[in-house]
């Protein structure tokens, strides 16, 4: 007499096991898609921030205009430049305002000049500011000659996103050396009152 055959295994547990495998695979795929979406979202936010940074980027340059007999500050960037600090040195010593600058340079009739406020100020994109202007050509020429090798300057400015740069120029009047005058900084320095240029 033949041994009885064991009863066939029900199909339902096998189907459940197969479904479990597919559920696990679907969960892995969903997690991967979620992670990719997070990466794409982060990258998109980064690109958008870079675009905003580019749209509000300021760039200050200082120079002289011999025709206007003045020292100018230009904002060649595409965003407003918020001036946080400014310094002017004559012979390495900080001066607090134009009157002290002109006294140190020995400029005759020092009160014969027109000034505009640089610190504190906000310069709009494409604007220029005449820091100091001399109506008298002889006074201007004397100032220019004396300032050429004796005056140096630094201006710290920030964008509306509070990213900051330092403009440092050993020759703000006269020829510009082919060096990078603007460098990014973490923040504008806190200076002693005696070293701040206010005009």
Question: What does this 3D model show about the protein?
Answer:
Strands 3, 4, 6, 8, 9 and 10 form a six-stranded antiparallel beta sheet that branches. Strands 1-2-7-5 form a four-stranded antiparallel beta sheet, with no helix packed on it. The chain folds into two domains: 14-55; 60-195, no CATH class. It has three helices and ten strands, in the order αββββαβββαβββ. The longest helix is centred in the first third of the chain and has 45 residues, at 11-55. The protein is rod-shaped and about 125 Å long. With 199 residues, it is α+β, with helices and mostly antiparallel strands. The protein starts with 10 loop residues before the first helix and ends in a 14-residue tail after the last strand.
What number of structural domains do the residues give? 2
Q: What's the overall average pLDDT, rounded?
A: 85
Distance between the termini: 118 Å
Please give the share of residues in helix: 25-40%
Would you report the number of β strands?
10
**Unreliable parts:** none
Biggest pleated sheet: 6 strands, antiparallel
Q: Proportion of β residues?
A: 25-35%
Number of contiguous helices: 3
Coarse morphology: rod-shaped
Order of helices and strands: HEEEEHEEEHEEE
Instruction: Indicate the radius of gyration in whole angstroms.
Output: 33 Å
């Amino acid at each position: 007499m033949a041994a009885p055959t064991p009863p066939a295994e029900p199909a339902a547990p096998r189907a459940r096991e197969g479904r479990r495998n597919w559920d696990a695979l679907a969960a892995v795929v969903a997690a991967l898609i979620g992670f990719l979406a997070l990466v794409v979202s982060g990258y998109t936010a980064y690109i958008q921030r870079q675009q905003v940074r580019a749209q509000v980027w300021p760039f200050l340059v200082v120079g002289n205009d011999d025709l206007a007999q003045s020292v100018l500050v230009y904002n060649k960037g595409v965003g407003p430049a918020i001036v946080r600090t400014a310094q002017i040195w004559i012979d390495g010593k900080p001066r607090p305002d134009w009157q002290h600058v002109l006294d140190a340079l020995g400029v005759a009739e020092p009160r014969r000049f027109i000034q505009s406020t640089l610190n504190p100020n906000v310069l709009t994109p494409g604007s220029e500011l005449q820091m100091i202007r001399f109506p008298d050509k002889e006074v201007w020429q004397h100032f220019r000659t004396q300032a050429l090798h004796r005056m140096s300057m630094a201006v710290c400015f920030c964008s509306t996103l509070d990213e900051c740069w330092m403009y440092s120029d050993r020759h703000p009047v006269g020829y510009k050396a082919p060096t990078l005058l603007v460098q990014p900084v973490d923040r504008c320095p806190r200076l002693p009152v005696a070293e701040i240029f206010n005009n």
